[in-house]
Amino acid sequence: MDLAHLSSAAELLSIKHPHFGRIQPPGLLKTTIGTVTATTRKAVAIADYSSGNRQHVAVQIDPRNFMVTIAGSFILVTLKEGESRHPVIHKTWKMVDQRRGEGVKDFFGTVGTFIDSDGLKWEHRFERPPDEDELIGFGSNEEEVLIITLESFYPTTAPDISGVTISPLATP
Question: Residue ranges per domain, the chain?
């Protein structure tokens, strides 16, 4: 599956992928509460491993046009096209584990583990300077399928983005 050459939300919605195109919004109450307590940040890089190889998602689209909302009850990824935003991933999920600091050798900081409405695992890795925060979507075989690197105030180590500081105050 070639995700690199996709150029619109409609194309992302139409592909066969365990995460992209899965729109299962939560109910009104969960959405309202989740939106108030959620963390929303822009992506700085999106990589997909569903084909067995690393590939960037939609290389013609600036990754900062993807907005990621992480709430206790759902995950929402939208793509800005023109003046509007279109959901490309919207799944309910529940937290099943959270680890901090010691014992999290590979991913120091905090790691929240979630199971989504399709039974797939996600990890939100955050509070880990100087590394970026990440949202990792796993496939049915527990392999990393989707890695979304999120903006931060720290110098980035994201592949293909070297020597820059990603800040939510920066303007395109």
Answer: 9-150
